[in-house]
């Protein structure tokens, strides 16, 4: 006589419930890693960080992709978008199948070497900055993670004073500041320009934008979490530009430029990424060359005061992420093929090495999620 397997159901339920509970424990983070694939990298990698133990571990390859140099995730983490930073580049969408990402869609971006991607707050639109062609693109995203229709693009023109890096426009960041409004950062022409996008993907230039210091080469921007302030890395002049922001009229006014390098440094350097702690108290910038993170205190006026410079234990720190809660920071060192975990001192903003790092080939983008 065959016995009923019903008595196994409670056991199976308990096992599944326990696994789900463990996966949702506080202090457990997953991080997706975008890379360049000219060397040993095969695409997008997945790693984990246990904040309680301060241990960083590599889970493995999540998806094969060519040069997925910048990533964006939906709030739930269910859908992942990546640029493929090539000539005639593309935008890729992925969904999860266990610990693997399965490509759902791919669309050409109508531009060369897409290097930045961002999702608007209601997760209906995706913006992409295309570095080599000096334009940006916008495409619709669907609830299932697919990409609807073809992207529309807007071409920048002009040049800057640096004849090597600013021979033409180079859009380097496309940041949403509302469901239909975004700021485009152009390294090649020293401008940050606001645009709006309607439901039919019609792009409108709101105003001429803010003209940055000549030759500074703005690269990335970040918005203060509670103030109307925007901060930009200036890759060519190695400064942070501090700007007051009028969100109604999408107007920016520069109020401060401050160096990301220690006084007396004479080596070659280009700064890259920047992030602010969740409480809005500290700002950090990666220095490629000095191989450090520059730390700043954000004052009552929103301007910056230097805190110090902290070695990243690697070469060419490109992108980094501050984990939710603001206790830890992870740095992707492109040329030394490693990701390093640091502890953030909430009292003074200094960084302390946790003792944990992992090897990942050519890491250039980090995105954390639960």
Fold and architecture overview:
The protein has a domain at 65-211: YVTN repeat-like/Quinoprotein amine dehydrogenase (Methylamine Dehydrogenase, Chain H, 7 Propeller). Helix content is 4%, strand content 53%. It has one helix spanning 9-23, and strands spanning 28-35, 43-50, 55-64, 71-73, 79-84, 90-97, 100-108, 114-119, 125-130, 135-141, 147-155, 171-176, 181-186, 191-197, 203-205, 210-211, 218-223, 229-234, 239-246, 251-259, 270-276, 282-288, 292-298, 304-311, 317-322, 328-333, 338-344, 351-359, 363-369. Strands 12, 13, 14, 15 and 16 form a five-stranded antiparallel sheet that branches. A four-stranded antiparallel sheet has the order 3-2-1-29, with no helix packed on it. A four-stranded antiparallel sheet has the order 4-5-6-7, with no helix packed on it. β13 (181-186) and β14 (191-197) form a beta hairpin. The longest helix is centred in the first third of the chain and has 15 residues, at 9-23. The N and C termini lie far apart (47 Å).
């Amino acid at each position: 006589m065959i016995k009923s397997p019903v008595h196994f159901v409670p056991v199976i339920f308990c096992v599944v419930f326990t696994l789900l509970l463990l996966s949702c424990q506080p202090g457990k983070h997953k991080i997706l890693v975008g890379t360049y694939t000219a060397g040993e990298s095969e695409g997008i990698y997945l790693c984990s960080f246990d904040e309680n133990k301060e241990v960083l571990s590599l889970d493995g390859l999540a998806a094969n992709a060519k040069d997925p140099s910048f990533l964006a995730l939906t709030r739930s983490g269910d859908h992942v978008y990546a640029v493929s930073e090539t000539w005639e580049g593309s935008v890729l969408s992925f969904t999860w199948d266990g610990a693997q990402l399965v490509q759902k869609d791919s669309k050409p971006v109508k531009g060369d070497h897409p290097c930045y991607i961002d999702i608007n707050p209601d997760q209906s639109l995706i913006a992409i900055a295309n570095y080599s062609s000096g334009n940006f693109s916008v495409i619709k995203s669907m609830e299932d993670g697919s990409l609807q229709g073809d992207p529309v693009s807007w071409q920048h023109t002009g040049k800057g004073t640096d004849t090597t890096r600013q021979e033409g426009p180079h859009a380097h960041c496309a940041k949403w500041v509302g469901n239909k409004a975004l700021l485009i950062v152009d390294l090649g022409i020293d401008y940050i320009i606001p645009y709006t996008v309607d439901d039919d993907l019609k792009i409108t230039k709101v105003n001429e934008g803010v003209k940055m210091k000549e030759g500074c080469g703005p690269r990335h921007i970040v918005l203060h979490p509670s103030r109307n302030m925007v901060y930009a890395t200036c890759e060519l002049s190695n400064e942070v530009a501090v700007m007051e922001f009028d969100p109604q009229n999408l107007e920016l006014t520069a109020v401060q430029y401050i160096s990301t390098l220690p006084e007396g440094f004479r080596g070659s350097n280009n700064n890259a990424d920047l992030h602010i702690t969740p409480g809005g108290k500290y700002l950090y910038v990666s220095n490629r060359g000095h191989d450090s993170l520059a730390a700043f205190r954000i004052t009552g006026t929103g301007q910056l005061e230097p805190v110090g410079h902290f070695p990243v234990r690697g070469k060419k720190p490109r992108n980094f992420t501050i984990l939710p809660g603001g206790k830890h920071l992870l740095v992707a060192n492109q040329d030394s093929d490693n990701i390093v975990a640091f502890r953030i001192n909430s009292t003074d903003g200094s960084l302390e090495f946790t003792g944990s790092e992992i090897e990942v080939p050519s890491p250039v983008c980090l995105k954390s999620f639960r």
